Amino acid sequence: STCSLTSNYPFCVAALQSDPRSLRANDVKSLSAIAVGISFAKARSTSTYASGMTKNVTAAVALFGTCAEKYRNAGEALRWALGSLAQENYDYACMHVRAAQDYACACGTLFSRRRSPASAYPPATAKRADYLQRLCGTALDIISQLVDAP
């Protein structure tokens, strides 16, 4: 029922089902922490992926290093969001999740500023960024239910 109040019900359900704890969650607060945790894991794995891409000898090596840093920052923002959720400070949790979403978007922006074909935004990286942004959007939709709760 929590996912029915999000902007993308099928995505929300699939994302939450990827974590077995969601089956035992009995309130919106628990589900919001799970959604942020899933986002955190994706930010971390994407940072590791981008770091690994710096070992390739291409014109985009420096860009991947910067992207890895942006995804590390996204992970830190999501860690702060989890802390804010634990303290029931939902406005701050939303702020931190939005920051993570912005960090995920920043990598694509870096690539788009380069006009060189050698620095084209790799589709696999774009897919990871899009997925993290969607996870963060779902987390925001769920946390918003706590903000709007009476």
Secondary-structure topology with pairs:
Elements lengths: L8 H9 L10 H26 L7 H26 L3 H24 L9 H25 L3
Helix pairs in contact: 2-3, 2-5, 3-4, 4-5
Give short descriptive properties of this protein:
Butyryl-CoA Dehydrogenase, subunit A, domain 3, 5 helices, mainly alpha, 150 residues
Task: Please give a structural write-up.
Keywords: Disulfide bond, Signal. GO terms for molecular function: enzyme inhibitor activity. Belongs to the PMEI family. Pfam families: PMEI. Residues 1-142 form the Pectinesterase inhibitor domain. The protein has 150 residues and is an all-alpha fold. It has one domain: Invertase/pectin methylesterase inhibitor family protein (Butyryl-CoA Dehydrogenase, subunit A, domain 3). The protein has five helices and no strands. It has helices at residues 9-17, 28-53, 61-86, 90-113, 123-147. Helix 2 packs antiparallel against helix 5 (123-147) and helix 4 (90-113) runs antiparallel to helix 5. The longest helix is centred in the first third of the chain and has 26 residues, at 28-53. The protein is elongated and about 50 Å long. It starts with 8 loop residues before the first helix and ends with a helix. The mean pLDDT is 90.
